[in-house]
Design a protein that fits this description.
Blueprint: E1 2-6, H1 17-33, E2 38-44, E3 53-55, E4 58-63, H2 72-86, E5 91-95, H3 103-108, E6 112-117, H4 129-145, E7 148-151, H5 154-163, E8 171-173, H6 187-193, E9 201-205, H7 214-224, E10 232-236, H8 244-251, E11 257-261, H9 265-274, E12 277-280, H10 289-296, E13 301-304, H11 307-310, E14 319-320, H12 325-333, H13 352-366
Parallel strand pairs: 1-2, 1-5, 2-4, 5-6, 6-7, 7-8, 9-10, 9-12, 10-11, 12-13, 13-14
Antiparallel strand pairs: 3-4
């Protein structure tokens, strides 16, 4: 059985939650399924190597793609669906509701379709009415016509089952996950590189887009008085497409605020491990991998109270009202040790090996001729 994967920019080490999700997921699914399942990721050349390559047992085929905020995703998805079908793929896994517009097209071409819903992207501030309407349409047709739907947010999965009762049995909640972090041996080197000391900075991680809420975090940091206490604010991330928002955010940062750009994952985890506090001020998320990883490495955390974040069930003290700069400033001014959690048992739900097992089981239900050969240990139980 051949499975094509569509909807991500590429892998490995490509910025974005969907890209991280796929990078962690498919090598595990490939290992679990063995030679009965060949996985090909149809990537976009601007974010990937130019020629076909292998990544941890997964075939990656970069396809031509325009790099445009509005047309990149849909044009690449159409091309990828065609390449998948005429490349003999019997099953396709389409990620996100924008590419979900192409689910009926894939069905018409005779493929079985798995769709992963990564979040209600029509709520993102960057989209106007027309783009939001298209994204809502993408969500509708993806849920309506896919053979199986995977949703990374518990609350969104519940809403979709209510809206599509006839498809309720085909809508599965399977969250994002966290992987075992690399060794902390190089932490001091990373801190030195960024002129930081352990416990002397607040950390935010993500793309520089309005829905991530970094403008609120900067304003709250300035109002909190942390700069006068020797605590800086570090924001790691950049914008895939430069915008007025991202340029304005970085053009003249207040004292104590440091935008350090996109960093390799090992450096990001090192910054998380040594932060006084990790803050996720988002207005919109599916299920934040950056937030899960901050929990995984034991950082004190403070999240906005949007539904995908409250789905995690953290204590109320670890949330603040989204968009409320004054409330966030008050939270920042409190001792950050108060936001530290014991998370080992909590994170058991977000184990990538178990998530791979669940995803493969959904695929097997959608393609009954695809069977396991040898089960690795993580499929037991």
């Amino acid at each position: 059985m051949e499975l094509a994967v569509v909807g991500l920019r590429g892998l490995p080490d490509v910025i974005g939650g969907i890209e991280t999700h796929c990078e962690e997921l498919y090598p595990r699914v490939s290992l679990a399924a063995g030679p009965d399942l060949k996985i090909t990721v149809l990537a976009r050349r601007p974010y990937s190597q130019k020629t076909r390559f292998q990544f941890r047992g997964v075939d990656v085929l970069p396809l031509p793609s325009i790099k445009n905020r509005y047309f990149e995703t849909i044009t690449h998805t159409i091309l990828a669906v065609l390449v998948a079908r005429f490349g003999r793929a019997k099953m396709i896994h389409i990620h996100a509701i924008g590419p979900g517009l192409c689910v009926p097209f894939a069905k018409l071409l005779g493929m079985r379709v798995i769709h992963t819903h990564h979040g209600e992207d029509y709520n993102r501030a960057k989209w106007g009415r027309f783009a939001s309407a298209l994204l809502r349409a993408g969500e509708y047709v993806a849920v309506r016509f896919s053979d199986e739907v995977i949703v990374v947010s518990r609350s969104v999965a519940k809403r979709l089952r209510q809206r599509f009762p006839g498809k309720a049995n085909n809508i599965h909640y399977v969250p994002n996950g966290v992987a075992i972090p690399p060794t902390a041996a190089a932490d001091n080197e990373v801190l030195t590189q960024h002129e930081l000391r352990k416990g002397s900075y607040v950390l935010g991680i993500g793309r520089l887009v309005p829905e991530k809420g970094f403008h609120d975090l900067v304003a709250a940091y300035t109002a909190s008085g942390l700069e006068q206490r020797g605590v800086s604010l570090v924001i790691a991330g950049d914008a895939l497409h430069e915008s007025e928002y991202s340029a304005g955010l970085q053009s003249d940062p207040p004292p104590g605020v440091n935008f350090c750009g996109r960093l390799p994952r090992n450096e990001v985890l090192a910054l998380c491990r040594n932060a006084s506090l990790f803050v996720l001020p988002s207005y919109h998320e599916g299920l934040s991998i950056a937030g899960l990883e901050a929990l995984m490495v034991g950082a004190p955390v403070l999240f906005s109270d949007i539904e995908p974040n409250t789905d995690l069930g953290l204590p109320s003290h670890n949330y603040f009202p989204v968009g409320d700069v004054s409330a966030l400033a008050q939270k920042l001014a409190e001792p950050h040790a108060a936001y530290l959690l014991g998370t080992r048992e909590f994170l058991a739900e977000f184990d990538w090996d178990d998530i791979a097992r669940q995803t493969l089981a959904i695929m097997l239900g959608s393609a009954d001729r695809c069977r396991l050969t040898e089960k690795p240990d993580f499929l037991d139980g």
